[in-house]
Specification:
alpha+beta; 3-stranded antiparallel sheet
Length: 457
Amino acid sequence: MTNSDKIDLTEGTPQNCGVINPYALAEVIAGRRINWSSVQNRAELLEDLLQTPYAELFDPVHEGPLYTGLKLDKDLNLKQVRSPLLDVVVELDRNDLDLPFNGDGDVRMLRDLGPRFDVKDVGDIAVARTETSPGGNLIVTLRLPDKTRLERLHTVLTPDLVRLISYDPEFIHVDDGWTPPGGQWGLTGEFFNEAAEFFDPVQGAVANCYYIAALSAMAWATPNKIVHSTRATGGAQSMFTDRISFYKPDSGGTVDKDIEVTEALPLSSGGGFIYCRSSETGEIWPAVYEKAFAKLKTGVSHDQPDITATGWGDCVWATAQLNGGNRSYFNTAGRTGDQMWDLVRGNSMSRRTIRPMTAWTYSTGAASEKKVVYADTNVVASHCYTVLGWDYRDGVKYLILRNPWGSTEPTVGVMSGNYTAYDISWWRSVALAPNDGTFGIEAGAFQKYFAGLGVAA
C-alpha cells in the first residue's frame, strides 16, 4: 500500500478500547514494586491481590478490577462510567465472618441460597459455569450478587485507589494541578537511556493501552519520530521543559498543539511508577509522553494533568495524533486470516512494519463472530496491541504483536523461536520465549480473537 492509496475509513470500524495492566495494578495494591520474574505463579498472586479469579480478569463481562470505570452496555459496547465502587458503603464494625458466603456452612439445600441472593425463586440465580468432577459430582459456579461482589472488591479497591486508576467525573480538582491519591510528583530518571525502542513503553495502572500501544508502534516503525525536544526555563541545569508535538489526525502532518511539560512524574509514596514506565530502568520518555497526552486530553495549563483522563480510546486515532497520518481501519469480520496477514505485509518491509500499526480485540468474547472465550487463551478483551510485522514458518502465516503490558502472551496459535526482521539498517532478532509481551500468532487465530487492525501513515 502506497501513501497515495487512501483507504476509506468505512472499510473498518474505529473502536475505543481500555483495560488496566494487572501487574501495575497489583503493585499499587501491594504498595511496592514486585519482581515478577521471580514469582513462580503469577496468576495465583494476581488472584490474591486483585481478589478476582484469573479466568475472569481479561473480559469486562465479569466486571473485574481491570475494567474499573468501564461497563458493557446492552449492545456489548464498552462505555466509560463512574465506578460503582466509589459509592460502596461498608459497615466499619463488619468483619469477614459477616460477609455472605464466607465459610457459610448453613447452606444445605438450594433453597438456602434464596435469602443470600435476595431472590424468592432460586431458579432465578444466574449460573456462571458447570462442570462434572472426577467423583461424579456436579460443580456449579454461581455469580455472586452485585452488592456482595462490590463489597468484596471494595476491600482492595478503596475510593482513593479507584480514583487513582480511573477517571471520576464528579471529583473536583484544584486549579493548580492534580496529584494521584496517596502519591506525589517527582523527578526520576533520564528521558532516554539510548534510543526509543518498541519494548520501552510499558502500560501502568490506568486503562490507556491504546495510547501505549501507539507509542510502541511509533518507536518500532518510525523511531526518529520519538524525539527529545527541550528548552531551558532558567539558569540551573535542572530548569527545563520538554515539548511534545501532537498532530491533527488525517492531516498529513499538521501540528494541532505543542504541549510543554516538565519531567516531574506522578509517583507512589515510595517513589515508584504508578502509570506508564519504560522497560529500561532509569528511562522515562514513555512516561513523559503519557503526561503530555494527559495535558492534551484535559486541556489544562498547569504541569500536573490528571493521568486517569487518558483511560479508554482508539489506538489508530492515538497513533495519528502522534504523527498526523491518515487513518485506515480493517475489521477481521468478513476477512480471512490470510487477508489480515496480507494487510500487514502491505505495510511492511523485510518482515517489519514501516508504518505504525496497532490491533485491537473485541469488547468482550461474546461480541466476537465466533463467541470466543478470552480466558481460555490469555488474549485480553477490549485491549490494544502493537503490530510489529509478520513471519512465515513451516507453511504457517504469523502476525507479530506486542502486548503493551510488557507481558502476557496468548496461548493459542503462537510461534516459537525468534522473530527476525530488518530494522532500518540491521537485522534484529527478537526472542519470543521470554514473557515480555512480544509474540507471534497464527493468522487464523488472529482473525478469530482480534476485532481489527489499523495503520496511521
